[in-house]
Amino acid sequence: MTSITYLAAEESTHNPIVPLWQELVLGTIAFGIICFVLMKFVFPRMEETFRARVDAIEGGIKRAEQAQAEANELLERYRAQLSEARTEAARIRDEARADAEGIRQDLLSKAREESDRIIAAGRDQLAAQREAIVRDLRSEVGTLAVDLAGRIVGESLADEARSRGTVDRFISELDTAGGRR
Amino acid sequence: MTGQTIVLAADVPFPPTVEDFYLPSIAPWGGHDVWFTKVTLLLWLSVAILILYFLLSYRKPQLVPTKKQWLAESIYGFVRNNIAVEMIGREGVRFAPYLTTLFCFIFMMNLWGIIPFAQISPNAHIAFPIILAVISWVMFIYLGFRKHGAGYIKHALVPPAPWFILPILVPIEFFSNFIVRPFSLAVRLFANMFAGHMLLLVFTLGGFAMINANALLTPVSILSWVMTIALTFLDFAVIALQAYVFTVLTASYIQGSVSEEAH
Amino acid sequence: MVAISYLIGGMVVWGGIGWLVDQWLGTEGIGMGIGAVIGGAAGVYLVVRRLGA
């Protein structure tokens, strides 16, 4: 009996869309606490971390860009150096080729000169020898002819001067005879 | 005694009543005192769990996050990017901490509705939705006055329309912006949680009522309990959705207050 | 959401004002009827203004 009246009383006190004021108080305190802690100690730090992360990424990108630029510059420099070296090499090769040509020409002309010189020397020597031989022959032929003539004639050709003149005349006659021929 | 989702086959009250939502004090000396009941216990537990979770997982934040840190961050990142920035724009980041707290708090409070042995959401007591709705309400009005000064009244109440119909429109604007908004926020959340709990009660207690009435009805009772499990999954969707909706609507009201053009 | 709030808001506010007028003049619901119609029309106007075209 009492419990029934109690139930009835309770039934009438609770309306689901009328809040209990105790719960309003407690809920406000609870939500206040959670807001205070999370909004002060947790989410701002997350925001900070996000920013640090963005910074890190952007910094990384910047660094990478810088490195890229540096690398490009280096590459450009190497390329320039390379092409410089290439033209240098070409120049050196051309020079060398020119030099070699010059040396060849030099050597050639020197050799030609040498050979000319040798030929000339040989020719001179030959001429001198020939001269000497002719001279020798001339005197020898003269003596021999005089000896022979003296033996044939049986008498000494006393008159040296006349005989020499005779021989010379003879030889020059020979010469002229040879020349005419 | 009425109340309590009594898990004893005998003497189960059916159908469930509003009184099933008002449980007696947990403290043995408390009787029907409401300062410390299952609902307020769950409230304090929600606060404690959320604070501990975030403080512990974000004790030593690192640039390259650990798994725990990543999870906590993605909750904040979700509300920050998908609600605050999406609805309010760049300056929405300012409100992201509050919106995230709001979202997490509602979600946790709702979640009790399907956690075994708790199985009632504190948000099924309208007091808590009312607190949150009032905070959102005060907040968007305050922000409006801070942004526009006294011009906020014109900003909020006077729509772009010819002068002669303004007298008809202004009361409607007032009604829909300053009365319907907090009311619908609170009632939507409360009603969803209330209905969720009520459904679970109906199917759970209904199972017991039928098995008590006639042993032949046992298969139907079992079907009823299976339905309870299915409804628990459905409830999870409702829980997440309601937390999201409350947060999004708060963000959109803030946006309306701080935007330059009318709404 | 906004649309529903404007529609219902319009009808409730002007219906309510109409009801007050009824009380005052002792007419039987005619003020409320007119109010609700006006409020509904104004609500439609506001929704179109805010959301549409």
TrEMBL record, chain A:
Keyword Ion transport in record: yes
Membrane-traversing stretches: 20-43
Localization per Swiss-Prot or TrEMBL: Cell membrane
Main location: membrane
Entry GO CC: plasma membrane; proton-transporting ATP synthase complex
Keywords: ATP synthesis, Cell membrane, CF(0), Coiled coil, Hydrogen ion transport, Ion transport, Membrane, Transmembrane, Transmembrane helix, Transport
Xref: InterPro entries: ATP_synth_B-like_membr_sf, ATP_synth_b/b'su_bac/chlpt, ATP_synth_F0_bsu_bac, ATP_synthase_B_chain
Membrane-topology annotation of the record: Single-pass membrane protein
Coiled coil (residue ranges): 57-95
Pfam families tied to this protein: ATP-synt_B (PF00430)
Gene Ontology molecular function, alphabetical: proton-transporting ATP synthase activity, rotational mechanism; proton-transporting ATPase activity, rotational mechanism
PANTHER family found in the cross-reference section: ATP SYNTHASE SUBUNIT B (PTHR33445:SF1), ATP SYNTHASE SUBUNIT B', CHLOROPLASTIC (PTHR33445)
Subunit details: F-type ATPases have 2 components, F(1) - the catalytic core - and F(0) - the membrane proton channel. F(1) has five subunits: alpha(3), beta(3), gamma(1), delta(1), epsilon(1). F(0) has three main subunits: a(1), b(2) and c(10-14). The alpha and beta chains form an alternating ring which encloses part of the gamma chain. F(1) is attached to F(0) by a central stalk formed by the gamma and epsilon chains, while a peripheral stalk is formed by the delta and b chains.
UniProt similarity note: Belongs to the ATPase B chain family.
Job of this protein: F(1)F(0) ATP synthase produces ATP from ADP in the presence of a proton or sodium gradient. F-type ATPases consist of two structural domains, F(1) containing the extramembraneous catalytic core and F(0) containing the membrane proton channel, linked together by a central stalk and a peripheral stalk. During catalysis, ATP synthesis in the catalytic domain of F(1) is coupled via a rotary mechanism of the central stalk subunits to proton translocation.
Protein name from the UniProt record: ATP synthase subunit b
Originating species: Mangrovihabitans endophyticus
TrEMBL record, chain B:
Record's keyword annotation contains DNA repair: no
Segments crossing the lipid bilayer: 41-58, 95-120, 126-145, 157-179, 185-210, 222-245
Tagged with keyword Acyltransferase: no
Gene Ontology MF terms: proton-transporting ATP synthase activity, rotational mechanism
GO cellular component: plasma membrane; proton-transporting ATP synthase complex
Family: Belongs to the ATPase A chain family.
Protein name: ATP synthase subunit a
Species, as recorded: Mangrovihabitans endophyticus
Highest classification ranks of the organism: Bacteria, Bacillati, Actinomycetota, Actinomycetes, Micromonosporales
